[in-house]
Design brief:
The protein is an all-alpha fold and 168 residues long. It has a domain at 7-33 and 80-162. The chain has 5 helices and no strands. It has helices at residues 5-31, 34-52, 61-99, 105-124, 134-164. Helix 1 packs antiparallel against helix 3 (61-99), helix 1 (5-31) packs parallel to helix 4 and helix 4 packs antiparallel against helix 5. The longest helix has 39 residues, at 61-99. The N and C termini lie close together (9 Å).
Length: 168
């Protein structure tokens, strides 16, 4: 069944809205002062520790601090990667909804996501207790790249499946 103009418009509106929402969410997270951000990642870190190390409370103070610091670092970097991977998927799909199937969309989506990561890290420099880090840009950019590649793979699979159907 062929798509009507209205279906394409709704897809464009939905994808643009979702992309903007993820960008706003990333911006919101970056607005949090260091203390609040640490509390949030600390809660997630403790959940991970309690699952992976049920005997955590029997550890020495030094071992607890070391484990907590390592897990919290991993949680924070994983969150960076994941939110930017989602952004990468959405950017690639959003750009295709606007421009159609073009060769420049994958590198353009990656570049747009990487540019957003750069501006996000610059933004964090003005937030109390936060700092912009080049390593976070690299992690974010990697997340965008993986997200873009996932979107490309899904689109290829969907297109291939669509070509295999018999016409009524």
């Amino acid at each position: 069944m062929a798509r009507t103009g209205l279906q394409r418009i709704w897809a464009r509106i939905l994808l643009t809205g979702l992309t903007a929402a993820v960008m706003a969410l990333i911006f919101f997270f970056s607005m949090e002062p260091a203390e609040k951000s640490d509390r949030t990642s600390g809660q997630v870190s403790m959940t991970v520790i309690n699952v992976l190390h049920p005997d955590y409370n029997t550890y020495t103070k030094e071992k607890k601090e070391s484990l907590f610091g390592n897990v919290q670092h991993l949680v924070r970097k994983t969150a960076h990667f994941t939110e930017y991977m989602i952004l990468g998927v959405l950017l690639r799909l959003c750009f295709e909804s606007w421009f159609g199937k073009k060769r420049f969309l994958a590198p353009g989506s990656w570049a747009a996501g990487t540019l957003y990561a750069c501006t996000d890290e610059l933004h964090q420099r003005i937030i109390d207790g936060r700092s912009g880090q080049f390593t976070d840009v690299l992690i974010d950019s990697s997340g965008v790249l993986i997200g873009v590649l996932l979107a490309v793979l899904v689109l290829k699979a969907v297109r291939k499946k669509g070509r295999g159907k018999a016409c009524p």
